[in-house]
Amino acid sequence: xxxxxxxxxxxxxxxxxxxxxxxxxxxxxxxxxxxxxxxxxxxxxxxxxxxxxxxxxxxxxxxxxxxxxxxxxxxxxxxxxxxxxxxxxxxxxxxxxxxxxxxxxxxxx
Amino acid sequence: xxxxxxxxxxxxxxxxxxxxxxxxxxxxxxxxxxxxxxxxxxxxxxxxxxxxxxxxxxxxxxxxxxxxxxxxxxxxxxxxxxxxxxxxxxxxxxxxxxxxxxxxxxxxxxxxxxxxxxxxxxxxxxxxxxxxxxxxxx
Amino acid sequence: xxxxxxxxxxxxxxxxxxxxxxxxxxxxxxxxxxxxxxxxxxxxxxxxxxxxxxxxxxxxxxxxxxxxxxxxxxxxxxxxxxxxxxxxxxxxxxxxxxxxxxxxxxxxxxxxxxxxxxxxxxxxxxxxxxxxxxxxxxxxxxxxxxxxxxxxxxxxxxxxxxxxxxxxxxxxxxxxxxxxxxxxxxxxxxxxxxxxxxxxxxxxxxxxxxxxxxxxxxxxxxxxxxxxxxxxxxxxxxxxxxxxxxxxxxxxxxxxxxxxxxxxxxxxxxxxxxxxxxxxx
Lengths: 109, 138, 281
What we know:
Chain A is mostly beta strands. Chain A is 0% helix and 55% strand. A 5-stranded mixed β-sheet of chain A has the order 2-8-7-4-5, with no helix packed on it. In chain A, strands 1-3-6 form a 3-stranded antiparallel β-sheet, with no helix packed on it. Chain B contains 1 helix and 9 strands. At the A-B interface, β4, β5 and β6 of A face β6 and β7 of B.
């Protein structure tokens, strides 16, 4: 697991049924591109978050393939429909096999 | 280092390789696009790419893609050594076919977004982003 | 009143773009914290400039926007990391920062007055020095590297709880001689390029130096998350970069010279809001 990886998400605490909400996500990750060389001229191996998914109550909101051209500390913003109360599940997949997850509940009201 | 005939030849070869890079990248981009579209025609239409005209730093360039009817959007940076940037696949609960992120651009270049629409057709939009190189390394 | 100084700088500035003044924009963070990004210059600068301006005004719109919301500001990741460190006991005394200071928000008002004279130590101290004093003396923990990640994170946390408060460092009394030393350094030409801090940041702010828009070199936004290196940058690390760019041997981060320079540069921003962690290019 890459060190110091920390996911953050911003989701409203509540929404009206069927409302569209904005979700922002950010994960601290160096996103080593595999293009850089170290002081000795050796290529620093690629190590990135290569996929991000967001689901609500098991239904997909967005599924993103990330490439080395995504900036350090990958940031994603998108919109989701909230049909009912439930939970958003966010998952980031690391090149090294690590999976980082976080979840946010949302109420209707 | 002494500038010998051999190093001059090597330097020349290096220059040739550098000069050859954009061509290679373009070929790579063509492959990626072909894989995404299956060789289908790409038109203009329901796809918007928002990117700054001038980026203060190529390391962190904010972009947004949006469409009314895209099921999937591919983003490419045509001047990067590897053109792929991201692919957004919208699920059933996506409230809009739009997403924002921050990307790396190796220099001034065109950013390209290709959307696959619900009707199976493909549309594209591109935007030139000037990347400035600051004088102060700090 | 601005005058062009230094043949090298003059060449750089005049051969590139036209003057690009700072933008007319206002900064409110999280739709809550109003940030003073331009205000009347403190009295001690009366002969130099009329108005002091945050570096935020010299950045592009995308960069400025990243600072309007804590979620969009990547510097806040490091604030969250420091919040964990704040509440974690370390060292032989089994204490955390919170053991003495309670919540980190209790530190509101501390950042704006540093660097500050420390009577017991008989010296002007930066926030970093005070943090390491706490770690060594109160916690029995190892000091942090002056410009290292842990230290930058903690100074970002302490800045974040003071955002919106005016920078207000004391320049008189026992701090005066240190402040005068800093002022001396600010106006002294240095390096092969023979540039002083003032040549760029007083005489030419608003102008382009090649593709860079020169700011007043204010430090009210430090530590700052730079898009360039995608991490928090401390004041002394930035000073070091600037001095190196003049092609001079630089001072060491944490050295008495940089402490004096920090006090003086901070005082040039008296009245501007604390902004750290800010976002810059």
